[in-house]
Write a structure and sequence with these properties.
Helix content: 25-40%
Shape: extended
Number of strands: 2
Distance between the termini: 29 Å
Radius of gyration: 19 Å
Oligomer: single chain
Largest sheet: 2 strands, parallel
Order of helices and strands: HEHEH
Strand content: under 5%
């Protein structure tokens, strides 16, 4: 949630690298402690990534659960074909359900 604020000197707020160019110091960043859309298995799986990119940030918790994310790896030359094949398989197994892809750098 972003709330308007009077501009005054202060240290950069978390998220300021994304919001600062548009809003300057006129916002406060509030992190929601719980979510209802993302299943708990996602923050559990991505916790190490969060710790690396946002040290000190507390992972959110979720009020719902779902299937654990699956990990796939592929040779650099076959990533697109492997991903396309896997998405077709998952789409056929779960018609009408949204699919998501996370990739490591």
């Amino acid at each position: 949630m972003i709330s308007p604020r009077q501009a005054r000197p202060r240290p950069p707020a978390p998220g300021s690298e994304a919001l600062g160019p548009a809003l300057g110091p006129r916002f406060d960043l509030h992190t929601l402690p719980a979510g209802h859309r993302t299943p708990q298995e996602i923050p559990e799986t991505t916790g190490a990534l969060l710790a690396r990119i946002a040290p000190g940030r507390t992972p959110s918790r979720s009020i719902r659960h779902g299937d654990a994310p699956r990990a796939r790896s592929a040779h650099p030359g076959t990533v697109a074909a492997t991903l396309a094949e896997d998405l077709r398989t998952q789409s056929a197994a779960h018609p009408g359900e949204p699919l998501g892809v996370l990739r490591a750098r």
